[in-house]
Batch of 3 targets.
Target 1
Amino acid sequence: MQEDENNVIAIDGPAASGKSSVSSRISAKIGYLHVNSGLMYRAFTWSVLRSEIDPNDAASVVGHLNSINLNCGQSDGISTLRVNGLDPGLELKSSEVNENVSVVSAVEEVREALVSKQRDYLKIANIVMEGRDIGSVVFPETPYKFYIDASVEVRAKRRMAEGGGDDLNKRDKIDASRKVSPLLIAEDACVIDTSEMDLDQVVQAVFNELKVRGLEKL
Ligand code: CDP
Ligand code: CDP
């Protein structure tokens, strides 16, 4: 399949707004590959911490980037991640990774390397990609872009219900204020405030908008 024949649906938004849940339902329904770009930043951060590199030392972080093999692929329709052949698994969601992922993700060279891997996915499949800058920076040309939001109180409650261990406010602040591709709402994104919506309603709202925007084969 040619890269220019494939579609990308971009789902951006702050932490715990519902990006993963919505993206996985949409991709399952229409047979697109679900790619969670946040997990790539988490995997690299996991590797930085595991190698006992100071996440605040940008030069060492970049050095580490150039010394590892971060493989982003897919197997049987599921996207996969390996760091030097290892699958970090549940450690991607550890509180140590939560605490350090935003500072590592703010490093320009890290973003360049991961954005390039994110773009490679479009060469192999139709994709639903979630993140912070997918509609604004990674695939600005896609007409299918969404910004999923919810109040900070609702998002904190959702994360607490999952077990907590995540300072959303701190992460959001770093993500929205960094110099390189900060979290922002792309001009042509469809914004959905999900504070008072359940998942089915959000998925339906996304589908309705995809139809309006002309996505065929829904
Ligand atoms: O699921 P949640 O929204 O809590 O986080 P995530 O999507 O797994 O992303 C973890 C972190 O990776 C974010 O807080 C950002 O610092 C970073 N990230 C990013 O900078 N750009 C992206 N496209 C995706 C994630
Ligand atoms: O990927 P992101 O961090 O943006 O959020 P998520 O992991 O999809 O959702 C965080 C939690 O909120 C999950 O437990 C979802 O089931 C829940 N959620 C919800 O209750 N209502 C929504 N409209 C969206 C998500």
Target 2
Amino acid sequence: MERDAALLIVDLQNDFCPGGALPVPEGDLVVEPLNRAAQCFAAAGLPVVASRDWHPPVTRHFREYGGLWPPHCVQGSEGAAFHPALRLPEGSVVISKGSDPERDSYSAFEAATVEGRSLEEFLTSKGVRHLYVGGLATDYCVRSSVLDALRAGFAVTVLTDAVAGVEVAPGDSAKALEEMRQTGAQFGTVNELVTTQQA
Ligand code: VGL
């Protein structure tokens, strides 16, 4: 990776994995490649950011209150915890989103650090210009985060072997990836990253 790169791991939480409240089929398969990617970024001294969905129990995001989804990732619950096999390197930054009960907040660019800094502020303060993105779900939070990153002027590489989609309708993930590509995202894989880094 370039010196101005950072890794964004989107919403790798229990509720989005098999057995969770809003499971992404095979969502847990992205844990292993993202562990390798995170290790690679940390070893290079580059930032690793992990976003999490962090909803209050009552929010318009949930079906019962007018939204699309069953309750998931409620603040402090087991479902909102990161997947137990996810290994975030020391110094990784966790950002939370979805706490405003009036908003869906799919995008990590709506998330904030514990100190209340936005993702964009954090990345800019670190001199980051190129974001590598993996996580869940391709057709919702990954999509929104990637499109916002491009709009904010970052170069974006989607790690295609480290994303998985909800697929409310079959083909949603492919459609989302195509939209990201047309908006300017590049595609890569964790394997490529790790191999180039070792070379
Ligand atoms: C997500 C659906 C609802 C996601 C969040 O993380 O992609 N998907 N809320």
Target 3
Amino acid sequence: MGKSTVPKPPIVVLTGAGISKESGLDTFRDADGIWAKVNIEDVATPGGFHRDPARVHDFYNMRRRGLNDPGVGPNPGHLALARLEKEWPGEVLIVTQNIDDLHERAGNANLIHMHGELNKVRCQGCGAVMGWTGDLGVGDACPRCTRTGTLRPHIVWFGEMPLEMERIQEALDGCGLFVSIGTSGNVYPAAGFVSHVRAVGIAHTVELNLEPSVGASLFAETLYGPASETVPAFVDRVLTRGW
Ligand code: BJW
């Protein structure tokens, strides 16, 4: 079914690592998550990269290989959000904290990667952002400016400004529904979006997660269970009777 012609309120969906868990990608703060295995300061801060770039490259190379493994793909949660964007008669914006490309592979096109993208690199010399699906090393030269030692993963680390914040802010200000999926609510500014939405407007706010997040009490509605089940059911509901 395509979009009807009667416009409906815009929807903003914030996603986190929980939506990709059932695709085989690790979350961060669950008991078996990434931060239980590596030190945040070493791999996810500008200081860690400055001290030991090879270590940081190894960390992201390993995750890039995992993401590009042929066995990894979008799950029913991602596919339901692609259906929402296709069939909702209004704007649907996905703001993801995830650096994987599973929303794109599912079919979402109106998408912001606020914490960057694993399959891209950025040159600290010329500023170019480029697709990069293989391993990255300290000896690699920038394909644009040819300098060596200037490439870094296109990832937003702690203490760095998340991407496209102005566009996100505008979308939050004007939305009729804000949905947060698979995020623990520990990392700002994303963790503050629900409070912002409630402060500026009358949007309905919904959390879909495996368990209550840190900010669960800030949402008007909460639904718990695996994203592969809760997201398709929620999207069905929104497309048939709204919220
Ligand atoms: C399921 C499921 C299933 C499992 N189905 N659900 C005090 C001191 C110092 C700094 C700060 C401070 N207070 C605030 C800050 C700022 C800092 C911050 O927030 N720190 C906190 C830790 C306190 N933030 C920043 O530095 C950010 N920049 C910034 O603030 O700039 C200034 C600014 C201010 C205002 C406006 C604009 C700018 C940058 C943050 C960068 C985050 N980077 C990372 C790593 C890089 C990406 C990568 O390597 O992948 O991004 S950290 C990591 O956490 C990653 C994630 O995107 C992010 C969020 O994690 P997420 O997605 O919530 O995952 P989990 O694991 O925490 O939760 C998963 C959830 O899923 C769980 O609840 C599960 O239950 C659930 N789940 N299976 C459904 N099947």
